[in-house]
């Protein structure tokens, strides 16, 4: 039996950062970053992918660290085990969440 896992990211922005068209965040670019950072997560067991014990919490932190420099104002990474209904969210201290 497989486990369905959903990854969500969150970004924060202020009113002043919105353009006249209402944009701050390029969702297409963010999707490419997420795809690059996560493409192997479903291919093999996580115990084969990571040198650390791959709990949801540690994987969420690892993904945040990979994506933070590439996605402006990233505030959290969330992994949801959709099969069992459990969610883990990593948000570093000081981020809005």
Q: Care to describe what's here?
A:
Helices cover 29% and strands 21% of the residues. It has 97 residues and is α+β, with helices and mostly antiparallel strands. It has a 3-stranded antiparallel sheet, covered by helices on one side. Strand 2 and strand 3 (86-90) form a beta hairpin.
List the helices and strands and how they pair.
Blueprint: E1 5-11, H1 27-38, H2 46-49, H3 56-67, E2 74-81, E3 86-90
Antiparallel strand pairs: 1-2, 2-3
Please give a handful of descriptors for the protein shown:
3-stranded antiparallel sheet, 3 helices, 97 residues, alpha+beta
What can be said about this structure in brief?
This protein is an alpha+beta fold. 29% of the residues lie in helices and 21% in strands.
The radius of gyration computed from the alpha-carbon positions, rounded to a whole number of angstroms, is 15 Å
Order of helices and strands: EHHHEE
Tally the helices.
3
Oligomer: single chain
As laid out across the biggest beta sheet, the strand order is 1-2-3
First-to-last CA distance: 33 Å
Low-confidence stretches: none
Category by helix and strand content: alpha+beta
Strand content: 15-25%
Q: Would you tell me the overall average pLDDT?
A: 89
Helix content: 25-40%
Largest sheet: 3 strands, antiparallel
Total strand segments: 3
